[in-house]
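User: For my dataset I need records formatted as: sequence, then structure tokens, nothing else. Please produce one.
Assistant:
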Amino acid sequence: MSADVAVDLGAGRSVRGLRADGVAVFRGVPYAAAPVGAGRFEEPRPAAWSGEWDARACGPTAPQGRTDVPGLPDLSVLVGPGWLPGAEYLTVDVWTPDPGAGGLPVMVFVHGGSFTGGTGSAPGYDGSGFARDGVVLVTLNYRVGVPGFLRLPGAPDNRGLRDQILALGWVRDHVARFGGDPENVTVFGESAGALSVGALLAAAPAGLVRRAISQSGGASHALTPAQADRVTAAVAGQLGVPATVAAFAGLPDEALVEAVAHVSASGLDLAVDGVRDPLMGLSRFGPVVDGELLTGQPVEAVRAGAADGVDLLVGANRDEMNLYLVALPSPPVTEPMLRAAAARLHPGAQELIDAYRAAGRGVTPGEVLSALGTDYMFAVPTARLAEAHADRPGGTWRYEFAWRSPAADGRLGACHGVELPFVFGLVGRIDTGVLGIPGTDPDVLALAGATHAAWVAFARDGDPGWPRFTADRPAVRRLDVAGSLTLAADGPERALWRGVR
């Protein structure tokens, strides 16, 4: 049974949510004004409403493509239902054990979705498990695709990132009314959400974040202005309009979503002026070096002290790219395809391929390509971020999630996103879809409990339960049913990426 529960936000505002099983949930609470018309391409503004907001059901999501596409696997646990139309989609969802409590640790989750989709209301981000363990859990929506990340003359860059910063400001100002401590906020995210966390370490005003967790991301993925301009030209060409705010403001959201889908599937090459595509073709949209929020790659800002005093937990999954090469429809990888892909990522393609095979990182072309992509996009940037922060004020911890899903005859492995139900304490509680996580296996349930507990402990005390990662002792926790601590997580094959950008 559930019952209504209300929270007074002050200034004539309140929100009405639902309490059930010892957890109060508030859905779809606006933190920013609805981005409509030309406002889709403007700086976000705080929400202006009064009275009581009905927060008992999920709100709309950012304009994006469908997720229930026939012939594709069910990824709703990771990205949600797709586009649920409605103007008021710049919102937060809040889970709390007790709005009347005080001083509870706060965690703010930034969802993934290639910067073109996703929602904080996806079933895989249910915050009840965190709330039951004494955490106020907040998820947020932000602008994606063209409104969020297209570089458009006359509009501020990185609008989706600006949304995230405004949402963190809303948390600072209001989370105490939900029982949370605004001085103890951990921002965390996965995939594009983890890349967002990396960017926030460089761009967010001091004091908004006490701790940060990057799951399968890093801080080396910002587009150069020239790369972003190439995307802008492609989108404008697809739409048949000039690349101006005035021209884009008159277009419906449906047209912008269709243009994102077309450009994303077009094979657009973002290798510009000798700079490789930092997103490896997985997305054409993302944060850009704008000279304001981001003056360079975020990892360099962290190295220079932008995240001093912020505790940082970073990690990646062992077989990230298997989500794309095994779970999603893709043609069989041949040796020529492997060599061509390696050449786009590294100047010594054959040396790289040989090193990965020698290190036991794959035999078939598909296996080797998955290992290369995993390291280029996720593992190596994660290591760079850990190294950049290790000698700065604020602790650094690193992990590798290595549990292998039995899905696809065991070929899915420790793929991209598979750690999320473990982190949120949802293994055995929800259908994990394509991830294929058995919900009754005692070893898997034990790993889920330990993983979730580590995230809670980090948010509460700044210590996930294993030694810090330092320059002279680069400790990495291997998260698996037989977990271990290692000082040699990065084999010789990963050393070949040093100096490659």
